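Q: Give me the 3D complex with zinc ion.
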Amino acid sequence: MILDEISTAVVAQLNDQAKLGVQVIDQAEVPETGPASRGLWWRIPNVTAVFADLKGSTALSSSVSPEAAALAYTYFIRAMTVVLERFSAGYVDIQGDGIFGLFGGQRSMFHAAACAITMRSQVEKVVAVRFKKDASVQWKLEVGVGIDQGTLLVRQLGLKGTKRNEVWAGKTVNMAAKLSSAAGPNQVAASDRVFAGYERAAKLRQQALIWSCGCGGRNRGPGLSASTGQASRLWAKQAAPKGLGLDFGSVYTRRAGWCERHGAEFCEAIITGQRPAR
Ligand SMILES: [Zn+2]
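A: Here is the predicted complex, encoded as structure tokens.
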């Protein structure tokens, strides 16, 4: 009987693993690949996950041709991979039809924010425009991006050969994925624990992360010297949607992408914490 064989094989596998035991070792940085040696796991604190979700992807395959749907996925995933690589994400992986990157270290939440806002801007200004031109369909390509931070455990698990992959144990990737699907079209959504870090940041970084350049798309104006305050705040606070299994109370969402004029200096200030040299 096949079921008896399966039970015997499962028991044998568990016996092997029990004999090996597990060893958890702390690491500071996010690795490109997890440890593969027997029983070893790495534990990494302060990992920030950025998850990009293609909006309306369930309706995509039923509303356009398979070729147009495939093109949408190709453009979206390729473009998001480029952005994650340029922001030096430590680890990048595809989950379902979404893509996520992990950033490590104390400043990981700032790199994650700059990456997330860039994803959103690239989708709106480049990817969607090109897709519309090349696919000639009405369906609109949009992204939702989620950001969360926490401690993760990682190792490689799975079958021998190519069916191995990193297992990231911990809630961070899952929470970022949920935030990305809860985010509106072309919005970035961050958990309150991440946003608290943005509010605690040094003044220049905080200015670049939270407040508007004040030019209102007029392509001139104060930029990083703009006055801060409720009126120019780019993030809206809302109660975490119920029923999604989110383990935090509030979500902060941001609709704005990079300003054409001031985006570059804001992005640099977020990453370096310094005012860019003119
Ligand atoms: Zn501006």
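A quick observation: The longest helix spans residues 108-135.
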